[in-house]
Design brief:
The complex is a heteropentamer. Chain A has helices at 2-16, 32-48, 59-68, 103-112, 124-128, 160-175, and strands at 91-95, 118-122, 151-153. Chain A is mainly α. By secondary structure, chain C is α+β, with helices and mostly antiparallel strands. Chain C is built from 16 helices and nine strands. In chain C, the strands form three sheets. Chain C has a four-stranded antiparallel β-sheet. Chain C has a three-stranded antiparallel β-sheet with strand order 7-8-9. In chain C, strands 5-6 form a two-stranded antiparallel sheet. In chain C, a hairpin with a 2-residue loop joins strand 7 and strand 8. Chain D is α/β, with parallel strands linked by helices. Chain D has a domain at 3-90: 2-Layer Sandwich (Beta Polymerase, domain 2), CATH 3.30.460. Helix content of chain D is 22%, strand content 26%. Chain D is built from three helices and seven strands. In chain D, the strands form two sheets. Chain D has a five-stranded mixed β-sheet. In chain D, strand 6 (93-95), helix 3 and strand 7 form a beta-alpha-beta unit. The radius of gyration of chain D is 16 Å and the shape is globular. The mean pLDDT of chain D is 83. By secondary structure, chain E is mainly α. Chain E has one domain (2-7, 92-360). Chain E is built from 16 helices and two strands. In chain E, a hairpin with a 2-residue loop joins strand 1 and strand 2. The longest helix of chain E has 38 residues, at 27-64.
């Protein structure tokens, strides 16, 4: 099974000749000048003011703190207002392993955040269970089983720069959203 | 208060490195472990014999090596690498595969900007399409 | 009425749940706190929010591989955890590690301790409401991270130790960089004094708060700085030296205060000891091999093996039961944080909510190490 | 005290014990029902004075369970390992040592959680890491979990 | 140039006033229009001020913490707060199910309104004051303490334990520190013999109170700064929010717009407190004069009065920010000890001293 899917992957890759943009861009209907400009303004505000929730379970949280520290300083992007309460946060950086017992808590935290909310899965553990994928009885194999994830950033743990890169990628995604226009 | 006041007035003490702006000058340490790569030379040849030593050494099943039987010029059948599947989403960059590789085929890449919107893109096939084993590695 | 409806007050009890997501619990610890006004009546820890079944996994991993999972336990002492695992394998195989590897291991371990204590100092300030120390401590921590990155290749989970030595030789810049960082840390030591140690509010917050007597500390099995602040000589580096610690001159920091302030002072003093250990060693790293060659598949002889090391938080024990196969039959990690945590209900009794934060900060728990 | 002295003293105290000296420490193997009084003596007698329990765990040896207690004395600086054999693997029970060493409370919770050993007279026996309704005891050798992917 | 700068505010105001009375004949309508214009311009001023204060706080914090701070949104990051505000405006405003919905939604408005009310009697420049009330000091101290009702409401109605603790702390804290603030204000009322803010400013024409009033006034100035930092819930007295203890205290459950209102009121309070301190102790818009150095005094007079006022205010704001980014937080019992055991007795004795000083005429 595994082999077959991989072979298909090889074929697909050969046909496409490599991807340039990660993910797919959704076409959004044009809403006229005013609506488009408003959208742009809102997206500009949102993308530049992502307030993360203080939520770290393990190792990746330390690199998240490093990113907040003086050397990497994510306040340059306006991310420094880390909120302890999910009600005021926009961005959930899932940093660290999520286990079965934590999963309902994570889901609840996500539900408590007001819209629009974004999720970054930081590190191998959150993307797929990482080092705890095999032989482990209590680890959730990827947080995307629990909550929708916008950006994945692999690494164990990723560098602070990689986290910043993920947040810039996140900003790019937000800038392509539409608030007043409905997607198809 | 004296200390914070000192730093407030001495802006040259700021230690921040501006990441996206300094991308051109930003250089990782030469041993930095960013991702696993197979080295290819200009003739599109690599050194991986498909021996699966790295697959066995990997503690969390990140590497999957798929081999195929290939008939040599002298009529012997030989195992050859077809796909070196690498799950970057599970890799902990622990260096055990690099150490275990008998033919120095894989190295650690320095790239750390792996953010993607789709998890599937983190499953990679490391050998280039159409690449071949380098001459003389197996001996 | 509203409060009764929502079960906030039940039979005169006021219970708050600190965590699993709470900024003061440094991770996903869940403390159930019974309150009387602001005073704490009882604390009950609830664990398992990061139980990753590492012990079960180790039963299926080879002796080379199981070392790396342990750096995810106490990620702030990742290197020392790895060292403990390598040491237990070496003890079972009766391998003699080359002196160069030993010296490198000690330097790295002390750097880990320094970095860990710096992070503790940063979070200590943060927990008590002073944000600025966080940034000053992280400046030095980043410098140490750079040393690791240059020699080991990773910033946090180095995975530098293998059974029989270290994975790679040190980087050519290693000596110079370590010396620079040591100089930087010494130069900036006065800032630590000024910002927190000498601050009246800070002292008021810690002095006389969270007292733990010597007898209680022994009974609760406290280790590391928490125990040493209650006057117990519990430094494994002195009691059961490993990797050549017996040849190094350093003092075991003891304080009989037993309160948060004593724990704070012990950690601050330990940083200075670590700096002195590194400075002793950095110029006399012996030449030679950095690794003994071991067999590709390591098999331990039958029997029980126990190895303890001193991490930044106390005594870590690795207990391996081997049945002669290529992976452990049973692997138990004696975590320093679990025993320190078990003392928290005792320490926190009668304290205020604000004190609980200070107690949590000075005991300095790493939750994944408790849950494993 | 050295290993030999410890051995002699313990034999005097409890003649039925067996010893195992292969490892670093002196291993004393006793039956599970003798545990509590034996431990109390080890703690209270001044020549032993084992006041510090530094490791408490359990091993599943397929046909029986083995509780392992690592003890050290802070005054004499000698170590000992007590192993208590629990033969009943279906409903394993043993006395709690929480009244002697407070640190045992959470450690025994952990063993209860992962091995299913029930501790008698434990003040607050609960599953420490897993949910209350978790089925099975994961560190037992016969534990099966279909969600677990084996490598 | 001089006229344009120093009298622009008052002359502009009078010009608009005369123009309006020419256009609108109905007196009622005239007053309403004037009020509307005043209200809107004040609101705009306060919002812009809060943008600036937010930006200033982040930059001050960043520079003290050896980092750069916001620098990507707008020139040098100056539009950062605008982005934050727009984001908060368009964010979902949640009302928890378990909460008392009416009070929950009312609370942020009360907090903002009370802090805005206090802005009225402040003299921003020479002859430029919205409302020259004769009991200015009394008005300020009484209205500003009403904010606590909003905070209590917010904490109680959220039906969250952390909020409740935060609100209770806030009640205890604000009620106690109110006393010191009042007493330190009274010392100046005694000295100047008036409760009107404009008259207090006028009384400092020949020297600010902090210079004229010897040590007792300096003591009451320090007490005022400390107590008002506590009054507006800023670190090191931010026990009501205490992120590490209470995850946000009384505003834990608030999101979006309503949370933005709490932030707004926090910054308005910061401004108001500093403005009052500047008015009462540092001479408001009065320029800095030294005795008989006429040349120097004339030079100082060239600087417009509004700039004097704002310079002093921002100096005090900076000091309060400096506190915040340096000191650790106090514990609740230490906080109350500080007030009841130290600040209150000291300020009582201080009032006695000031009274004696005034009776004997020892001040300049």
């Amino acid at each position: 099974m595994e082999e077959r899917s991989v072979k298909m992957d090889i074929k697909k890759r050969e046909e496409k000749g490599g991807l340039s943009f990660p993910g797919q861009l959704q076409e959004t209907p044009d809403g006229g000048f005013l609506v488009t400009k408003l959208d742009e303004a809102i997206n500009w505000a949102r993308s530049n003011s992502l307030w993360p929730l203080i939520f770290g379970t393990s190792c990746c949280a330390i690199e998240m703190m490093s990113a907040a520290g003086a050397k990497y300083d994510w306040s340059r992007f306006g991310f420094e207002v880390a909120r302890a309460s999910p009600r005021q946060a926009d961005l959930l950086i899932v940093s660290g392993t999520i286990v079965m017992k934590m999963a309902p808590v994570l889901k609840r935290l996500y539900d408590q955040m007001p819209d629009p909310k974004y999720v970054i899965a930081m590190g191998a553990c959150t993307i797929s269970g990482g080092p705890f994928f095999y032989n482990s009885y209590s680890v959730v194999k990827g947080v995307d089983h629990i909550i929708p994830v916008d950006v994945y950033i692999p690494g164990c743990p990723p560098r602070p720069e990689a986290l910043l890169h993920a947040m810039i990628t996140m900003q790019e995604k937000i800038k392509h959203e539409a608030y007043f226009r409905k997607t198809k | 208060m004296k200390l914070t006041g000192y730093y407030f007035t001495h802006l040259k003490e700021i230690v921040t490195e501006e990441y996206p702006e300094n991308r051109s000058t930003l250089k990782m340490m030469d041993r930095f472990r960013g991702e696993v790569l197979i080295q290819h030379d200009e003739k599109n040849e690599h050194r991986c014999t498909g021996c699966q030593a790295c697959e066995i050494a990997c503690p969390n099943g990140t590497i999957k090596i798929i081999t195929k039987q290939e008939i040599q010029a002298d009529g012997k059948k030989k195992k050859r690498l077809e796909a070196f599947v690498y799950h970057l989403d599970m890799c902990t960059l622990c260096n055990l595969c690099i150490v275990s590789c008998p033919s120095d085929a894989i190295v650690m890449g320095q790239n750390f900007e792996h953010s993607v919107y789709d998890k599937k893109q983190l499953k990679k096939i490391l050998n280039n399409p159409g690449s071949k084993l380098m001459e003389g590695v197996e001996e | 009425m509203l409060l009764e409806q929502n079960h906030i007050t039940k039979e005169g009890e006021f219970v708050i749940n600190m965590g699993p997501q709470h900024p003061a619990t440094h991770g996903v610890l869940h403390l159930k706190v019974w309150l009387d006004g602001e005073t704490i009546k009882k604390v009950e820890p609830h664990l398992g929010y990061i139980h990753r079944s590492i012990e079960k996994m180790c039963e299926r991993l080879s002796y080379r591989q199981f070392i790396f999972t342990t750096s995810r336990m106490d990620y702030l002492s990742a290197h020392i955890n790895n060292q403990a695992c390598a040491l237990v394998v070496e003890k079972a195989l009766q391998l003699e590690v080359p002196p160069r590897a030993k010296a490198i291991r000690i330097i790295m371990a002390e750097l880990t301790r320094l970095a860990s204590h710096q992070l503790w100092w940063a979070c200590m300030g943060l927990d008590l409401g002073a944000v600025t120390p966080f940034f000053y401590a992280f400046r030095e921590r980043e410098a140490i991270n750079e040393i690791w990155e240059e020699t080991c290749g990773a910033r946090l989970t180095q995975n530098y130790i293998v059974p029989g030595g270290v994975m790679m030789d040190t980087h050519p810049n290693f000596r110079k960089r370590v010396k620079d960082v040591m100089k930087q840390i010494k130069d900036k030591a006065h800032e630590y004094e000024e910002l927190l140690t000498g601050n009246v509010i800070f002292q008021e917050r810690l002095k006389g708060v969270g007292y733990l007597s010597r007898e209680d500390a022994i009974s609760y099995g406290c280790t590391g700085p928490t125990a040493r602040a209650s006057g117990i000589n519990s430094d494994i580096r002195k009691l059961f030296p490993y990797d050549g610690y017996e040849q190094i001159k350093f003092d075991e920091v003891l304080n009989s205060g037993g309160d948060c302030w004593a724990r704070y002072l012990v950690r601050i003093e330990e940083m200075k000891q670590s700096v002195s250990i590194i400075e002793q060693l950095i110029d006399i790293i012996p030449e030679g091999d950095f690794q003994v060659k071991t067999k590709n598949v390591i098999k331990l002889p039958k029997g029980d093996f126990y190895q303890r090391v001193e991490t930044a938080r106390g005594e870590l024990g690795v207990y391996i039961v081997s049945d002669g196969a290529a992976s452990p039959y049973r692997c138990k990690f004696r975590s320093p944080n679990l025993s320190n945590l078990s003392a928290i209900p005792k320490i926190a009794e009668g304290a205020k909510i604000g004190d609980l934060v200070a107690i949590m900060a000075t005991v300095d728990l790493v939750i994944p190490d408790i849950d494993r | 005290m050295t290993k030999e002295e410890l051995k002699n003293n313990i034999t005097e105290l409890l003649p039925s014990t067996t010893f195992d000296e292969t490892g670093e420490f002196l291993n004393v193997i006793i039956a599970s029902d003798e545990l509590l009084p034996f431990m109390k003596t080890l703690r209270s007698k001044s020549e032993f004075d084992f006041d510090y329990l530094f490791c408490l765990t359990c091993i599943d040896l397929n046909n029986h369970l083995m509780m392992v207690y690592h003890l050290i004395s802070k005054t004499h600086n000698h170590c000992i390992v007590i192993k208590a054999k629990i033969t009943d693997t279906i409903k394993p029970e043993i006395e709690s040592v929480n009244s002697i060493w407070k640190t045992a409370e959470l450690n025994e919770d952990e063993v209860y959680d992962l091995f299913g050993v029930k501790f008698l007279n434990h003040p607050n026996l609960r599953r420490l890491f897993l949910e209350e309704d978790w089925e099975g005891y994961p560190l037992r050798k016969n534990y099966v979990d279909e969600n677990m992917i084996k490598l | 140039m001089k006229i344009l700068l120093s009298y622009s505010f008052s002359s502009l105001a009078s010009k608009i006033s005369t123009w309006l009375s020419n256009v609108i004949s109905n007196e009622m309508l005239l007053i309403i229009t004037k009020m509307l214009i005043l209200g809107i311009s004040l609101l705009a001023f306060l919002v812009v001020l809060c943008f600036f204060l937010g930006y200033m706080e982040r930059k001050v914090a960043a520079f003290m913490e050896i980092r750069i701070g916001p620098n990507r949104v707008g020139p040098k990051g100056s539009l950062q707060i605008v982005a934050d505000t727009v984001k908060l405006l368009f964010k979902e405003g949640l009302t928890p199910d378990a909460s008392d919905k009416f009070l929950f939604n009312l609370a942020p408005f009360i907090v903002v309104i009370t802090s805005m009310l206090v802005v009225a009697p402040i003299a921003y420049a020479k002859d430029f004051q919205l409302w020259d009330i004769s009991i200015g000091v009394l008005y300020v101290s009484s209205i500003s303490s009403m904010g606590v009702i909003g905070i209590l409401m917010a904490g109680w109605s959220s039906s969250n334990k952390y909020s409740l603790i935060g609100a209770m702390r806030s009640g205890a804290q604000i009620v106690s520190y109110e006393l010191s603030i009042g007493l330190s204000l009274i010392s100046i009322v005694i000295l100047s013999g008036s409760m009107s803010l404009s008259e207090i400013v006028q009384s400092q024409a020949n020297g600010w109170w902090i210079f004229k009033g010897h040590i007792p006034v300096i003591i009451s100035f320090v007490i005022f700064i400390v107590a008002s930092t506590a009054e507006i819930n800023r670190a090191p007295f931010d026990l009501t929010e205490a992120e590490q203890e209470l995850t946000g205290g009384f505003h834990t459950e608030y999101s979006g717009m309503k949370f933005a209102m709490f932030l707004l009121s926090e910054y308005i309070n910061l401004f108001v407190v500093s403005a009052i301190a500047a008015t009462i102790f540092l001479g408001g818009w009065m320029p800095f004069h030294i005795g008989s150095l006429n040349g120097f005094n004339h030079l100082m007079d060239y600087i417009p009065s509004s700039i004097w006022f704002f310079a002093k205010t921002f100096l005090i704001i900076f000091i309060i920010m400096w506190f915040r980014w340096t000191f650790p937080r106090l514990r609740i019992d230490q906080l109350l000890n500080l007030e009841w055991k130290y600040l209150l007795p000291i300020s009582m004795v201080n009032i006695l001293l000031v009274t004696i000083m005034t009776i004997m005429g020892w001040h300049f």
